[in-house]
Structure formats: C-alpha cells, structure tokens
Amino acid sequence: MAQAIATAARNFGGIVCVQVERIAERDTLNSRQVKLQWGSR
After folding, report:
1. CA separation for the pair 35, 2 (Å, rounded)
2. How far is CA 14 from CA 2, 17, 20, 41, in A?
3. pLDDT at 16
4. Do the Cβ atoms of 5 and 38 come closer than 8 Å?
5. Segments in 1-41 forming alpha helices (H)
6. Which of 16, 23, 24, 31 is deepest in the core (most CB within 10 A)?
7. For 1-32, what is each residue's pLDDT tens digit?
8. C-alpha angle with apex 3: 32 to 18, nearest 5 degrees?
9. Is the pLDDT of residue 33 over 90?
10. In sequence order, what are the residues at sequence separation of 6 or more whose Cβ sits closer than 8 angstroms to the Cβ of residue 6?
C-alpha cells in the first residue's frame, strides 16, 4: 500500500519524503526487493 501511495503522489507531481533505516551503496540493492512501510513502526 505504501508504495502505491508514493507512486501515485509522484505521478501527480507530488513530492515523496521518506525516512531511511540505513543507506546502501549505489547499485547494491535490487529496487524490487526494497520494502516501504506506511506509518510508524
């Protein structure tokens, strides 16, 4: 659900802000394996 909301916001000219747990080196993650979580943990 979070990814769908972020994608819709971006597609309609919105800005998507996220908080990350850790930063990965460039080209070390498969974007299809990245998980977005909506709301607090």
Report:
1. 9
2. 15, 10, 19, 24
3. 78
4. yes
5. 2-11
6. 16
7. 778 888 888 888 888 787 888 899 999 999 88
8. 100
9. no
10. 16, 18, 36
- At 39, the amino acid letter reads G
Tokens representing 21 are 């747990």
* Residues 16-33 as b or e (16 or more Cβ within 10 Å = b): eeeeeeeeeeeeeeeeee
The confidence band for 39, taking pLDDT boundaries of 50, 70 and 90, is low
Q: Which residue has the tokens 């800005």?
A: 15
pTM over 0.85: no
Contact indicator for 5, 37 with CB cutoff of 8 Å: no
Only one residue has tokens 């996220």, namely 18
Structure tokens at 37: 């979580």
